[in-house]
Amino acid sequence: MTIETERLRDRVAAELIRTRDRTTLLTEAVDDGDLIRQHSPLMSPLVWDLAHVGNQEELWLVRDVGGREPVRRDIDELYDAFKHARRDRPALPLLTPAEARRYVAQVRDKALDVLDAARLEGRRLTVDGFAFGMIVQHEQQHDETMLATHQLRVGAPVLSAPPPPPGSSVTGEVLVPGGPFTMGTDTEAWALDNERPAHVLDVPAFHISRAAVTNGEYAAFIAAGGYDDPRWWSPAGWDHRQAAGLTAPLHWQRDGDGWLATSFGRTAPIVEDEPVVHVCYYEAEAFAAWAGKRLPTEAEWEKAARHDPATGRSRRYPWGDETPSPEHANLGQQHLRPAAAGAFPAGASPLGVHQLIGDVWEWTSTDFHGYPGFAAFPYKEYSEVFFGPDYKVLRGGSFGTDRAAIRGTFRNWDYPIRRQIFSGFRLARDA
Ligand code: AVJ
Ligand code: FE
Fold it and tell me: Is this structure's pTM higher than 0.95?
């Protein structure tokens, strides 16, 4: 056993444990009633997410990698996300909160045992290391989903965190030069199938804003009648705006001439220089048109985030190749809100684009598709079944995304009408 193998084993175990601590925090902050209840038809009951996380870990690590006996062979169907839509999950004969906690703990014991025995070397290092990384990311993704469920929960606040660091005046846009850029990756150990393979694209020069659109800017769009003027909306966007009666971001309410926003049970005036959050793709698209700009394409976003103009190389993150630390980005629920523009100068790109990672997921104008040479792994249901015109790509992660589940190549996707996620946007235009 090499030292490197042992280091990888320790790192994987530490990530599994750190991630479970977050899951525990999210599921112990509320009582059993709030775990079982559906806080919105868009979301699963929290107790479903909890047992689903355990069930995926059992399927992938315990049974597949470990070849062990099932912990529970009778519940796979209940926790298969493709078998039951979120809105139908509360009616299922789910494990109780106590049963779900016991189940995930039993699975975890076995998974750590599998990790101890796994030969994390050679080809196995890639294959098994990846399986563990996938499970860490999967649980973190559900933790972010559970955080979004907390955001929809009505009642006294149960989560708290210190405010993010203050902003500094970061405004305007930068010019990203045209030319070749390597998008995607062959080398990120924990990159998912849809981030692969690396491929060279010629991205023409474009301008991109240095910070995400703020609450103050978004309030100006509303004040200018942006929600009532079909000129700014795409036909699909206008239809949705009409049908859903959209008038402001989710969780905003009028307060005289101003706006209040409710965040994790606390209602306060919007903070003008913080990124707008909880807007759908169509709202982002309309704002951009009103501002005389457009949303970045996915390739533009990734070029802004990864391209180093000095070397032509693509970085892992805007600031370089180092794993995110608290100085780089607002990630991992360390703060319960996006930070003001300029709050993370150490995380800026070489061209001076700020906060591409963390704060808010950023809508891009690109439909979710496989890169040239895409190969589904480990199964089609991870991403391939979502390819097509129904989903838009979001990039960069939010304050609720863990560092293990974000990187310059990471791709998220959702329906263009969704806004219960921590979604915002930045602007671009042709050079
Ligand atoms: C990548 C966030 C769109 O939550 O639907 C979780 C991640 N896949 N379980 C989702 C995922 C399977 C996925 N997103
Ligand atoms: Fe899942």
Answer: yes
Decide if pLDDT at 167 tops 90: yes
Please give the CATH architecture assigned to the domain spanning 3-152.
Up-down Bundle (1.20)
For the annotated binding site for gamma-L-glutamyl-L-cysteine, the residues are: 86-89, 414, 418
Distances (CA, A) of 76 to 7, 53, 71, 382, 428: 33, 11, 11, 16, 44
Q: What is the pLDDT of residues 241-275, one digit of tens each?
A: 999 999 999 999 999 999 999 999 999 999 999 99
Query: What would the CATH number be for the domain defined by 161-431?
Result: 3.90.1580.10
Taking CA atoms only, the protein residue closest to ligand 1 atom 7 is: 141
> What ligand is nearest to the CA atom of residue 410?
1
Q: Where is the binding site for Fe cation, in residues?
A: 52, 138, 142
Range list of H helices, 93-193: 97-117, 122-152
d(CA 402, CA 212): 20
Report which secondary-structure segment, H or E, holds 8: helix 3-28
Binding residues, as ranges, are 52, 86-89, 138, 142, 414, 418
Task: For the chain, give every domain's residue range.
Answer: 3-152, 161-431
Query: Predicted ipTM?
Result: 0.98
Residues with CB under 6 A from ligand 1: 138, 141, 145, 412-413
Cα of 219 vs its chain's centroid, Å: 25
HSE at residue 118, side-chain half, CA atoms within 13 A, is: 34
Strands 423-424 and 361-368: parallel
Please tell me the distance between residue 299's alpha carbon and the centre of ligand 2 in angstroms: 26
Tens of pLDDT along 351-386?
A: 999 999 999 999 999 999 999 999 998 889 999 999
| H-type alpha helices, 195-352 | 215-223, 235-244, 281-290, 298-306
Alpha carbon distance 410, 397 (integer Å):
8
Residue 180, beta-bridge partner list? 202
Instruction: Please state, in angstroms and rounded to a whole number, the distance separating the CA atoms of residues 86 and 306.
Output: 35
Ligand 1, atom 9: closest residue by C-alpha: 138
